[in-house]
Amino acid sequence: GNSVTQMEGPVTLSEEAFLTINCTYTATGYPSLFWYVQYPGEGLQLLLKATKADDKGSNKGFEATYRKETTSFHLEKGSVQVSDSAVYFCALRKLGNFNKFYFGSGTKLNVKP
Amino acid sequence: KAGVTQTPRYLIKTRGQQVTLSCSPISGHRSVSWYQQTPGQGLQFLFEYFSETQRNKGNFPGRFSGRQFSNSRSEMNVSTLELGDSALYLCASSLGLAGGDTDTQYFGPGTRLTVL
Fold it and tell me: Which of A42, A91, A99 sits opposite B103 (nearest CB)?
């Protein structure tokens, strides 16, 4: 089957610290991989995506590389800000499956000033 | 342009009742998907509609149904509500391109349903 596993949260960091949120997936075929972010009281926003192996998605200082050999798509940021505090979701979508997404459980990030 | 809107934002119902949630997609978007978000199960895909037809379905019981109108607006209905249906219901819209790899979903803020 298809599934996404994320590291448990919450993750608490000080401002300017390095962030890694781990994400691994199980899927048949070759999925596209995504990171979404959810701020309090809001819906999800697409943060970045990668559609094939070795692709790197990046946006707003966040990066993630699609690693087929380790079935991973870890999210990283070199220097977090208080405004990055949110819940981060890793997700996959199989090719040809239109908009049927499989989401991880979400990782809450708290950044302290 | 206006984002995805969902109404109502909050809803309280009792067990056994039914409920209808509404989603208005971004103008020009033809695909609307629905998700259930709970602390225990996370985000789970309910179904996707494209051009008034359901083209994807998750693993939810038949009490959960939906439809899409010719203007792409979508409704989701839950009949015979159970306590476990308490959740945030999220709607997402996209252009609905074939293959979908370049298609980006935009989410609404959700409807918070509480079943007492």
Answer: A99
Give the residue among B112, B114, B59, B41 at the shortest CA–CA distance from A43.
Answer: B112
Cα–Cα distance for residue pair B50/B96, rounded to 1 Å:
7
pLDDT tens string A32-84: 999 999 998 888 999 999 988 999 999 999 999 999 999 999 999 999 999 99
Nearest CB to A43: which of B55, B101, B110? B110
Instruction: Chain B: give the shortest CA distance to residue A95, in Å.
Output: 7
Q: List, for residues B21-72, the tens digit of each pLDDT value.
A: 999 999 999 999 999 999 888 899 999 999 999 998 999 999 999 999 999 9
Q: Which residues pair with A65 in a beta bridge?
A: A56
Candidates B45, B90, B103; nearest CB to A43: B90
Number of A to B CB contacts under 8 A, please give it.
Answer: 66
Interchain contact, A99 vs B109, CB within 8 Å? no
Q: B19, B38, B16, B20: which is closest to B88 by C-alpha?
A: B38
